[in-house]
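Appendix B. Chain record.
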Amino acid sequence: MTTISANIVNVFDSTVEYGVLTIENGRIQQISYQGDEKKGEKYILPGLVDSHVHIESSMLTPTQFARLAVVHGTVGTVSDPHEIANVLGVKGVEYMINDGRRVPFKFCFGAPSCVPATTFETAGAEITSQDIVHLFGYKEVGYLAEMMNFPGVLHNDPMVMQKIELAKAFNKPIDGHAPGLKGASAKKYIDAGIETDHECFTKSEALEKLKLGMKILIREGSAAKNFEELIPLADQYFANMMFCSDDKHPDNLVEGHINQLVKRAIAKGIDKFKVLRMATINPVLHYRMSVGLLREGDWADFILVDNLDDFNVLETYINGNKVAENGVSLIENLASEIINNFDCEPISPAQIQINAPSDSKRLRVIQVIDGQLITKEIFVEPKIENGLVISNLANDVLKIVVLNRYRTAPPAIAFINNYGLKEGAIASSVGHDSHNIIAVGVDDAAICEAINLIIREKGGVSAVSNTKRGVLGLPVAGLMSNEDGYKIAESYTMIDRFVKEQLSSTLLSPFMSLSFMALLVIPALKLSDLGLFDGEKFEFVDLFEN
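Structure tokens predicted for this chain:
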């Protein structure tokens, strides 16, 4: 039996009273209140939950992700494993479940609904309706993961609707993914039974969906940052809102997690109990997680902070066991098994050349928007040299390549604006959602060298300059490392700095942004291994236009 005395934050009743928690067999046996809040004492409150995250995007296995996250007061995540599912199918999801079981952390995994995400790209595996039934048999699988195929929902695609009906039959929540969807289309999508969306990038879109009964997740990840735009809605609609990171690189996870969003929201004047409800109660109740909420009989999952303004996390407890203290994780540093699906040959510059059109045509270009997953479509005059279309550094129009990593196939080639590279190239085998190799660079030789470094490691992120090469290997499915999370964060920080300082990328998170340039379900223009794709018309388009 353990007792802890502190100011007890009751998020349900919006009260703070001094008292004693009695913990036995991992649960809160008793809460004894002893009077008013005591200034200068610590505060106990429920542990924080990330309501939507792809663990794989941290480049860490579940065991290592948990080890870093608990330091920031996170006790559980709603984790969509569709990244590894696109690489390895059911075997990949089971890998995440089994790896997560090795540490004291509350993972709620989803059954991926869209693997492959579209038919316009090459994935390494498929998740069928039968597979979803199988995955629902795991106690760790608590929901149907984001339904990215919103056109399939709107057009009553039989396979899509079967998966939705399966989730309903198993009484599982259904996650959404509908960027920019409004009006009658949004209503039909929601009426199909889809309950959440983390893709809203405007206040008006989120408000419309909230009024239609959808729950909105405020996302603040390494690339997509929607907190500033959406947080004003929390004052009125907090009961139907949550916080999530979606995709968070390891260096950012070392810095903080959901605790950062709580602190920022409180600093903006949002009532602290509304903010805490979004970070604790709402995800636990919506996803029916086995996470305690600081009530008698609950699992003893809670955190201690110094005060409710600065919100510095001092200690984290899961099932009554202390798992972090004063910025140090107490979770054991465990290595993970390596599994993968990677089989392609190195490429040469001749394979990624683009012949100039015979007549005068404009070049269709992907325009990156820093801090967003959406892109724009722009048209520019191509730069031609020796009969070939090449990168135009003066206008920041660079070549981008996607190469199938599951079998040897011709690369897809296009051009991208706003990356800012002045020399060299970068590449990654993290390319949402099918996770083929994606690269951007100023010349063909550098692009091929960056890609071939990835092929040599069978997964990773790489960067090359005129004088230097760097690669961080990700041997687990080409998405994650099996090594110490803090070391991976340090290595990633170094290669990220290299890209920004030596290659001169102007983006906040160059590798994370790169990974989304193949995400076809996010408008407007993206590149898959099969070609240039219009995410609004949902069809391939030509590289050149009259």
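Further analysis of this model is presented in Appendix C.
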